[in-house]
Amino acid sequence: MMTPKINICCIGAGYVGGPTMAMIAAKCPDCRVEVVDLNERRIAAWNSDELPIYEPGLEDLVKAAKGRNLFFTTDVESAVRRADVVFVSVNTPTKTFGLGMDRAADLRFVEAVARTIARSADRPKIIVEKSTIPVRTAELIHTILAHSGNGMRHQVLSNPEFLAEGSAVADLENPDRILIGGESTPEGREAMQVLVDLYAQWVPRDRILTTNLWSSELSKLVANAFLAQRISSINSISALCEATEADVDEVALAIGADSRIGPKFLRASVGFGGSCFQKDVLNLVYLCEHFGLPEAAAYWEQVIQMNDWQKRRFTVRVIRALFNTVAGKAIAIWGFAFKKDTNDTRESPAISICRQLLQERAVLHIYDPKVKPEDIRSALGVGEGDPAVRVAEDALTTVNGAHALLVLTEWDEFRSVNPAQIFQQMMKPAWVFDGRNLLDHQALRTAGFRVEGIGRAPLPGA
Ligand SMILES: NC(=O)c1ccc[n+]([C@@H]2O[C@H](COP(=O)([O-])OP(=O)(O)OC[C@H]3O[C@@H](n4cnc5c(N)ncnc54)[C@H](O)[C@@H]3O)[C@@H](O)[C@H]2O)c1
Questions:
Q1: For ligand 1, is residue 158 a contact (CB within 6 Å)?
Q2: Protein residue with least CA distance to atom 27, ligand 1
Q3: Average pLDDT for residues 426-455, to the nearest whole number?
Q4: 76 φ, ψ to 5°?
Q5: Which one-letter DSSP state was computed for residue 205?
Q6: DSSP secondary structure string, 301-317?
């Protein structure tokens, strides 16, 4: 196959822009890829040996391409001018004020990027929406380009990113599918072909799906809504299991064996987190409301309410078990990232659980293998000298003098800890609340712990 020699610019050097462009640069050595961001610290980190985000395999991927055909810079306008294809990977958070507050996507960064492109482009570009955006955002981009540019007709494509943090490199290397939406005009089809050819460098052609713009834009929100819904569904069942002595992992195994249901994404937990699920479901809720579909909106909103309930329910179990008070009691927290293999804490269930425990005046000893201490403190709104939060360098020191251990992220290293060793260091009675059903509960019980997992009856201790 002919290798397309194209200049690529990606605006937004975050969790999506960085890894996605590193993969394109690795797989398409003839392409020149520039990743740009206004955040100077982030760009400096990408240009250093300590990357701004942690993902297994990312360091090697970036190292191999950086300086060859992968570049990181803050000079947005020059990079846009050089590019044939401009990916837009900026953040699209939930609006925190005004119309659509707490629901709608805040599109100001997307709008700003559209204006930058309109201002800088001296020839027609292919503009690719990589960010997750509400359906019909391409219309907004088109309108800005048409009115604030110099009359050039750019093509806007939708190419949502489906990678999962923690496995971003593997997902990018071997995606389930690549989705590309565009206009059904000859120019639209031509632009889509450029992107199809780019991905076809390493993705089997039958996994590259092309659709109309609006289907592609909407599919990303719907995919995340379905994934979040599965977690909320199994979490709702976990509450019923705790009340009935059924075991949620056994139920998940039994229902997941049905090929119509499938085994993935059925792990009950302390709740989902991450920057996307909540924001994208809320965005879907807002769109349903906007288009006059309140019943559909209420249906999806329940996914979020169930998740909030699951986090609250877990904290209440901890407080109730510890004789209705955690004031002044040390509690060990294992894991702060929203899932394993990432340093991302956005919307991590650990944040709301820790905040609730701090309101109850607990003293928290927190350890996470990849999240920096300052990021933990800033997520909890506490200063370095605050005696209520101590961030530890390793898992073992957190348990010293603690009344309970809470497992909030499923990091593999927690599995190898010896139950007897931690039991010995803790106040008695000593509890483990395993928010991920990660540890060996029988072994903990044998060591003397009282154990409470998700979706299973409590083990009262030996
Ligand atoms: N994080 C994920 O796992 C994931 C997965 C799929 C899709 N998405 C979507 O991808 C998009 C980006 O997510 P992310 O996690 O990478 O966000 P992020 O916050 O990590 O990165 C976004 C970057 O865009 C930069 N930016 C904002 N406005 C800019 C501008 N005008 N010019 C230049 N740079 C600008 C910011 O400084 C930031 O570094 C979001 O829409 C998100 O919903 C995220």
A1: no
A2: 90
A3: 97
A4: -60, -50
A5: G
A6: HHHHHHHHHHHHHHHHH
Nearest residue to 142 via CA among 188, 103, 195, 186: 188
Q: What is the 3-state secondary structure (H, E, C) of 132-159?
A: CCCCCHHHHHHHHHHHHCCCCCCEEEEC
Catalytic residues, which ones?
276
Q: What is d(CA 170, CA 80) in angstroms, rounded to the nearest whole number?
A: 28
What is the C-alpha to C-alpha distance for residues 455 and 29, in angstroms, rounded to an integer? 49
Nearest-angstrom CA–CA distance, 159 and 163:
12
pLDDT of residue 398: 98
Q: How far apart are CA 462 and CA 450, in angstroms?
A: 8
Query: Hunting for tokens 């990018």 — which residue is that?
Result: 172
Nearest residue to 331 via CA among 365, 380, 367, 379: 365
> Domains in the chain and their CATH numbers?
7-203 (3.40.50.720), 214-462 (3.40.50.720)
Cβ–Cβ < 8 Å for 342, 166 = yes
Does 15 contact ligand 1 (Cβ within 6 A)? yes
Tokens of residue 331, six digits: 């509690």
- The counts of H helices and E strands in the chain are 17, 14
Check pocket membership of 343 for ligand 1, CB cut-off 6 A: no
Please give the structure tokens belonging to residue 83.
């590019």
Q: How many CB atoms lie within 10 A of CB 44?
A: 13
Closest ligand 1 atom to Cα of 12: 24
pLDDT digits (tens, 9 = 90+) for 195-245: 999 999 999 999 999 999 999 999 999 999 999 999 999 999 999 999 999
d(CA 384, CA 390): 8
